[in-house]
Design goal:
The protein is mainly alpha-helical and 525 residues long. The protein has 26 helices and four strands. It has a two-stranded antiparallel sheet. A two-stranded antiparallel sheet has the order 2-3. Helix 8 (122-157) packs parallel to helix 11 and helix 11 (186-205) runs antiparallel to helix 12. The chain is globular. The two termini are 36 Å apart.
Amino acid sequence: MYAYESFKMLANAPHISRGRIPVLIFVLLAGTYAYFYQGGGSNQLSRLAMTRAIVEDHVLYINKYSADTQDVRVYPPLPRDLMRHPELKNLIYSNKAPGSSLWAVPFWAISRFGVSRIFQQEWQRLTLSVYLTTILALGLPCAGGMVVFYLWLSKTTRRPGRSLFVTLALGLGSPFFPYATMYYSHSLAAVSLFTAFAITWWLAHDEGAIRYHGLTAFLGGLLIGFGVLLEYTAVLPAILLFGYMLAVVRPKNRLCWAVSGVGMTALVLLVFNYLVSGRLLYMTYFDLKPSAGGYAFAGVGDAAFHLPRLSIVPQLLFGKAKGLLYACPWLGLGFPGYWAMKRQGFGKEALLFFSIVMGQVILITGFGKDICFWGGSWGFTCRYLIVMLPFLAAGAAFLPARFLAATSPLAFLSMFIATGATAVMPVISCLETDPIGDFILPHFRAADFGLERDIIFTANGFANNSISWNLGKLAGLQRHWQLMPLYALWCVGLFLLLRTNPLKNSLRRLLRFRTAGPSPQSNKD
């Protein structure tokens, strides 16, 4: 009940909540994220291996599934483990934060049960279980998180057209897009943190929006802690959000609820740490050692944290190899947007967002010794920055409509690049010096889609013996026709969105500005 009331609170703008825009955003993005299956890969299968172990074997160690992934940690079992499993000389665990594995448990159980009734071969069952779990546990929550993002922007800017543009640009024109199609934790952590912020903001600014204030504060705190449980690198944004919660939420009884939410996720992490290591304070990147799967690191070694190195900031933002703004330049609009936020009465929020963004960038510069560590290893841009993307993109919605219209080609360019990376292969080698120019664009032009070739459950696969695929390829479409159903979904979604009354009015005002020039109302989209 209180979860429903929380969402009702977020949709408390009457001209929006009674419309179809949030539903259309959800369907459009959920359908887009479900269109792709990115294969397995060590990172994804490391998380899902623990999920499988919990569901199918009722244990946390993944000895039985460690051949599918190299992202593991291995050390001798504790005395209590030897009593239960005397035959095991070592226990192998996933080296990822446990949140994504725990979150996927019910979805894996549902998916596994469903496909086992239809398909006979085990590789078919496992492949479809990974695909369905990715949709249910990742794609749908990420699409829902974008709805919350849109609702908060619409409430604060009072400009649904501008808010929709920024929401779709974030959902389809940033690294958030490819990482919402494969079972990594970064996009899910991003929507968890931003939803926690939106709940906190509503508690502080809209007393009549929701009935169950205490339970809603608990949910906000729970989502802050859940962000860290999903992704350890989200710890700094989580701390800043918790500080914002302490500063703005009153009275104190609500704060007690919020602290209880954070405390519950902290308790889950402590219990997990103790069960797998015998220690309460523990990180999954300790005790990395070679395993049967061939994991390369012995101890933390080169992946250790150092003092932040400001010289790396330009490479994280503008470098060809991993630069966030090089790949998705429209996100740079968030920075001048913070000044617009301040001028429109959202000074605290602007300061919070700027602190989260720059704090995350600076924090990541201290991770590891070279680009394969602070750059997020293999992937499209630096995946460690995804947790702060909603807080960066939100600033753009506060800019004048004419400015957004003039810079819209940057958003469309970013959407094209993000779509190319998603369709070709998001897990790009960290050794590529120009992954966009040398890898993504050439393969996209040649219609080389679904290039993930790592053999996981079978050497064949569903779509023309392909390990990864999109639904068009699965249906037998060739070359660029593989993406035509996706483009059709986008066109239909955009058509239906433009038919809603708020966006009709926004479009009329924008066209009036373009034909008649500036007027007293020209700053409204």
